[in-house]
Amino acid sequence: MTPSTPRLLGVLGLAAALAFAATGCVQSDTTENAVYSDPSETPDLSLPENPRVVALGWSDGEIAASLGVPPIAIYDWMSFGEATNGVGEWATDEFGDTTPVLIPPASAGDFNYQQIKEFDPDLILNVRSKADSKVTDSLKEIAPVVTAPEGTPDYAINWQVQTQLIANALGKSAEGEQQITETTDLQATLRAQNPQFAGKTFVWGAKFGTAYGAYLPGDARFDTIAELGFVEYPPVSDLQTQGFFASVPVEKVTALDAQVAVFSTIGMPLADLQNDPLINSLAVTRDGRAIELGEDDPIAQAMSAGTPESLRFALDGLTPMLATAASKVQ
């Protein structure tokens, strides 16, 4: 059993690491618009000084805003709402005086093309999204479209690639590189400050309904923590996987019993996790080496958003918790 989309995406977030060599920056097109999907090249889109950008992909709008180009419309995947401009609290101020129209989440990738057309966009961002050529074809009839590199699994684009693609398309390549560098530099600093993290096994698990799961290398949650020195708990690699998420059957819940763990929830209150007898039976929980986060916890939300800015926000709060947990490893 796996959680449904978009609920699963709200917590999984994203971001399987992958080789992103695409055959070209601009795919062939019969209209004046084109599809941009190669982060290694910088397209010349000749956008106006203040382009009208519609952000449809997961966290695409937050990244654009952090680069100084707040979108006029955002698909609010994580249901942040109008109070924070459809993004997490760490990025609200990036919009300045711009108040984007929020497109409420429906079924994943179910877009109202007439609505999008009425926004009169200069550019459409649909990068961290479902790979669907029909959707792309419909969008490029409206405006140029930025998508993930060909062959990328659904919603599973590495956060660095996503950032660079969007930055390139907006004519903000240097700013995109700076955003990425600030985050990777922070990871390196935290790793150097916490040598006790090196080599310790780690798992990020989730409880949803009566089932469990674990995030895999390639997901922003796991990869961000791994950059601090932690390594994958071997039993997780033996589980049945789906993209960047592994199902954990009840009889294999010990696959979550790493030296250090973060446990979160999907579609249920934190109390259901805290009172779960199987989670509480694990040594990592009994020994105080597990960090438990509800899905509405800002740290969990920031890790799910998986942008340079959100990851820095999450690391500031999560690293001290990881240090406490790691100190209890015998």
Automatic annotation (TrEMBL):
InterPro entries: ABC_transptr_periplasmic_BD, Bact_iron-sidero_bind
Alphabetical list of Pfam families matching this protein: Peripla_BP_2 (PF01497)
Signal peptide (residue range): 1-21
Compartments, as annotated in UniProt: Cell envelope
Domain of life the protein comes from: Bacteria
Protein's UniProt keywords contain Signal: yes
Keywords: Signal, Transport
Keyword Cell inner membrane recorded: no
Residues in Fe/B12 periplasmic-binding domain copies: 52-326
Family from the record: Belongs to the bacterial solute-binding protein 8 family.
Protein name: ABC transporter substrate-binding protein
Species: Rhodococcus gannanensis
The organism's taxonomic lineage, starting at the top: Bacteria, Bacillati, Actinomycetota, Actinomycetes, Mycobacteriales
